[in-house]
Amino acid sequence: MLTHFTASGEAVMVDVSAKPETARRAHAEGRILMQPTTLTRIEQGAHAKGDVLGIARLAGILAAKRTADLIPLCHPLPLTHVEIALTPNAAESAVWCRATVETLGRTGVEMEALCAVQISLLTIYDMCKAVDRGMCITDVQLVEKSGGRSGHWTRTASTPSSD
Fold first, then answer.
1. Which terminal Cβ of the chain has fewer Cβ within 10 Å, N or C?
2. Does 73 carry a binding-site annotation?
3. Which residue stretches of the chain have pLDDT < 50?
4. Is 126 a catalytic residue?
5. Which one of the listed residues 126, 132, 139, 163 is annotated catalytic?
6. To which CATH superfamily is domain 22-145 assigned?
């Protein structure tokens, strides 16, 4: 049984040294809702602060690499691949973010994928807040993970309460 607590209730990092190294991958996603004019500025590259999506993509990659510095008891992992896809959606007046994170290790990369999405979207918010303070980050969730003892998992429409 994996636990973050000792028998006396003290918090510890889980010892994963006995687990075999396996290829692990996680996909997470989320979106930021905004005013249509804000999305148009982003898409046209007309934002005063520069390439919003390019900077957000870089921020997400850096966040994935630094997840162990942000989440207590999270293992530092040697990531082998991080990809951030940022897709504007005019119908929703939103930017969707999907992060794919991979490693060859003893523990999964779900937290790294989720951090990458959050920080990418927070970067968009930070860069655009002067023109649109009402933006809303929403739907951040793990979509799929593979590798490790628990194997493959994919979110279904009814997953939120079944985890």
1. N
2. yes
3. 1, 161-163
4. yes
5. 126
6. Molybdopterin cofactor biosynthesis C (MoaC) domain (3.30.70.640)
